[in-house]
Amino acid sequence: MRTQPIHHHRRARLAGLALVAAGATVAATAAIALGGGASQGAGTGRLELDCPPMAKSRCSSGVSPDTTGHAVATSSVDPAPLVTWTDTVAQSPSCPTERFDEVIVRRWRAVDDAGNAAECDQAIHVVKDELLLDIKPTSCPNPLRVGSQGEGASVSMALVGRPGQPVADIVPGSIELWREHCVAGPLAPLSVGLEDVVAPHAPTQRCECGTAGPDGVVDLRLSFSRQQMIDALLLAAIPNGSLVPLVVTGTLANGCRFRAGDCVLIRN
User: Fold this and answer.
1) What pLDDT score does 151 carry?
2) Exposure string (b/e) for 33-42, b if CB count within 10 Å is 16 or more?
3) Engineered SS bond to 258: which of 34, 129, 220, 221, CB 3.0-4.6 Å?
4) SS3 for 144?
5) How far, CA to CA in Å, does 21 sit from each of 58, 96, 124, 249?
6) What is the pTM of this model?
7) Where is 30: in which H helix or E strand?
8) What is the pLDDT of residue 140?
């Protein structure tokens, strides 16, 4: 079987990137031929095309068939039918804080030497890269006073560096802070800088935080205006003692989008 790509991407950034979306439910259509289950064309014989199942991948992993699966063509008259594919972005959510990024529909097509042709569709779900965010590094919980003028003018956060995930790849001008599900925001940071400020922790439940300090791996430290946070994220109206999930979004140097989440504890 010969395999040949035809890259007709609607968005050039998809080519060569690692993608796939979590939680989406679009199913791949497997083994659908133009004639309704078999081959169609001027030739003789029979051609069948089996699509790979729905694929899931994060952006940085790429969407090549080596990652997401190859279609398999079987012909009764040709031992190596030509298999090609084209990609179309079928769905892309408007809220940057959501983990789901987009759905690619890959149309596979097979043609054999007798002129028989068959097609099938594969759905590829792409998710954003997931980074670690630590609001108020080394503090747990992360209190944010919304009714006091005496607290510090800025709030420190860190996008936590980990081996194999260098935060230096983040595009500083792309960083924005939101309430979860884009309830409010965005807000740009006052400053961004590389600094080792905190060790990563592996939360086992929502809004869990850690207190470990520097670990020898550089982080990306962010500073936000406290009052701008309160205003832009509509935090003043939230009841005292509430845990509020916040999300930092942005873009990596490879063009992939990322998200990172943590919580603040509202104090009046």
Assistant:
1) 55
2) bbeeeebebe
3) 129
4) strand
5) 7, 14, 7, 16
6) 0.72
7) none
8) 86
Are residues 28 and 121 in contact, defined by beta-carbon separation less than 8 angstroms? yes
Q: Letter for the amino acid at 41?
A: G
Q: Which residue numbers in the chain have pLDDT < 70?
A: 1-43, 148-152, 203
Provide the CB-side half-sphere exposure for 161 (13 A, CA).
21
DSSP per-residue string spanning 34-77: TTSSS-BSSSSS-EEEEPPPPEEEEGGG--SHHHH---EEEESS
262: CB partners within 8 A, 6+ apart: 133, 134, 135, 142, 157, 207, 209, 245, 246
Both structure tokens of 237 = 């109206």
* pLDDT at res. 91: 73
Q: What number of residues does the chain have?
A: 268
Confidence (pLDDT) at 86: 94
Q: Who contacts 79 (Cβ-Cβ below 8 Å, separation ≥6)?
A: none
Q: What integer pLDDT is reported at residue 200 of this predicted model?
A: 85
Note the pLDDT of residue 220.
94
Q: Angle at CA 191, nearest 5°, toward 188 and 194? A: 120
Judge whether 18 and 62 are in contact, CB under 8 Å: yes
Q: Any idea which residue has 């939230």 for tokens?
A: 238
